[in-house]
Design a protein that fits this description.
homodimer; alpha/beta; Rossmann fold; Dehydroquinate synthase-like, alpha domain; 2 domains; 6-stranded parallel β-sheet; two-stranded antiparallel sheet; 17 helices; globular; disordered N terminus
Chain lengths: ~400, ~400
Amino acid sequence: MFLSDSQIDCVFVKMSSSLQDKLKCFSVSVPAVPDGQYEVFVGSGYLRFLRAALQEQFAPRSPFVITDASLVKAGHWDAFRGGDDLSVFVIDPPGEVSKNMQTISAILEAMEGCLLGRDSLVIGLGGGTVGDMAGFAAAVFKRGVPVVHIPTTTVSQADSSIGGKTGVDSSQSKNAFGAFWQPAAVYMDTATLQTLDDVQYRAGLAESVKHAAIADEGFFAWLEEHTEPLLKRRTDALEHLACENCRIKASVVMEDPTEKNRRRILNYGHTIGHAVEALSGYTLLHGQAVAIGMTAAGWIEKEMGLAADDRLERIETLLKKLGLPTRIPPLYSPEQILSLLKLDKKALGRRPRFVLLEKLGKVLCQDGQWAVEVPENLIEQVLCRLTVQRS
Amino acid sequence: MFLSDSQIDCVFVKMSSSLQDKLKCFSVSVPAVPDGQYEVFVGSGYLRFLRAALQEQFAPRSPFVITDASLVKAGHWDAFRGGDDLSVFVIDPPGEVSKNMQTISAILEAMEGCLLGRDSLVIGLGGGTVGDMAGFAAAVFKRGVPVVHIPTTTVSQADSSIGGKTGVDSSQSKNAFGAFWQPAAVYMDTATLQTLDDVQYRAGLAESVKHAAIADEGFFAWLEEHTEPLLKRRTDALEHLACENCRIKASVVMEDPTEKNRRRILNYGHTIGHAVEALSGYTLLHGQAVAIGMTAAGWIEKEMGLAADDRLERIETLLKKLGLPTRIPPLYSPEQILSLLKLDKKALGRRPRFVLLEKLGKVLCQDGQWAVEVPENLIEQVLCRLTVQRS
């Protein structure tokens, strides 16, 4: 985090002039970091060949795998390691409930217990929570070692494995603490999706709907036409899905890797989404919460007079066909949700900001900002409308 | 962490060709980060004016101060805040015993409890442990907010507040987990050194001896000639000391901010230093441990035939005049120390590497490396020689 020269002069000038005369001043320059690149590979059925390829490529780095109990149960951990005895940390219980600083501490201590140094390689094998924690652990172990992601769920293949966001939840909010840490490479094997349970599988498709809604109407139409092969998990449909997601996600993060502005469009559906996800104690899956959040964003657009077309209806219909929720469970009050929105990372001065659509495939940009302020009473109105009434 | 194009091609090529045919590949580019700059201000007696200047400059950022119980006791916290009611986290007990992931978690949760967002400003007011934790918390809160350092001890003014190294200790080793996070500005008020107890004050002078030894024989001679005004904490001597340290530290970190190679010279005395510091359960202060480590490095140079001059004698004499230890307490065996050296961040393939001098004011560079491998038996021999015999 740096100040410009003029800002620095400003600090200096604003001190009383008698004080200024007494202070000596040294400048510390920090050299530029050159541009970088990593590759994302998409295919089907190659997990078992990957360990040897990684080992050869990253030698002499010592691998350390972070995975979770569901990957072990599904046999993917055994498929990856072959007969080898690799250093591993198995997150148990799997999922959001373990995505916290305590687990990060345990992972870091385990890595040091294996006598790993800066010459180690973290490999995250699993879904979004595994990837977020593997990336965060890699970012802070000995002040940073490389990480390779092997995402194995619909949500992580569509979204979280690309772009370098890492982190954990606080006791109050989602992804509150973390770092930007770009992976060295990402390997997606769509065959790993076959072992996901239906609820998890469908939830992750919400991120694909999000990508289509913010960036590509043609992809949105493809999703509408291919709900059946997608729900049947046909390999060709899964590979096409993964490629479209990679293309869209990569193009956005390349432009704004640390989310200064435009990358915020990926937060479409994530403002109210994160809040209801956190309030549910993570019993709502991330993708389910994002589906609710996208519907809420659509209603906000309507209330603000921004949506004269049928996009909200198309989004809701597609989400429903994919088995995703579009209403808020009657467990949380609008007030509870509103108070969490103030902790949202896009909030400024504790006022929440939303990513909204201009039309299907294009995000609304107001005054150069991709996340716009929405009046609190309007948010509350939409929350009331979307909350399922208790019978 | 990125691979070069040729390395990526290599991963791809090394997979079996039949597999390769089946994989689709996307490149994700990450744009370069431009160079940055921050300023270090040195003066005496201006702490009480600083809060208002910072508040004005960084508005509308919400400040969050991280300090510790000893700063509160010495009155510096009250001097800084004036009559204002600032958000603050007071580390208690102060010092290395609290420098761990648990404290970081508590700080981050406290920040979120204050409803702080990405538009906050972390201010680290204190010694090395406060600065290291304030920087780390800033680096990972909402994936990164700016930090300003106000170092108040000899060790933090000489060394740790400049250069962007942040972190905490593991259960086994020093500064094991952390991040590189450059400050937005650093403010040194040498008047804060007046309240330090003698042991802590003297310990921090070891880092000044280190800077002189690795980079500037003239500064070394100045230290030899000014031990008296330094030990009496005369303002002019303290300001000159701070300026010399800033100049040397800044010039090294500018060249290699993330310690790929040359920045390692700042680790002179820190290899065995960190090990005995950790083994002592941090009852040895950092500077005391570094003094022991520099003496050990000097003996290693002698044993390796690298030191025909009287530099070891001059370094030992100066350290002793400053009231610093040059022998290892009889509490830890050479085997214990050796096993910790394998966790050192400079170690490669679990073999420890040392920063050694070519002559006073210049570090030895071998085959382009500023940290060189030393045979284990030679390290052991030096450890035995330096360990005070039990009576």
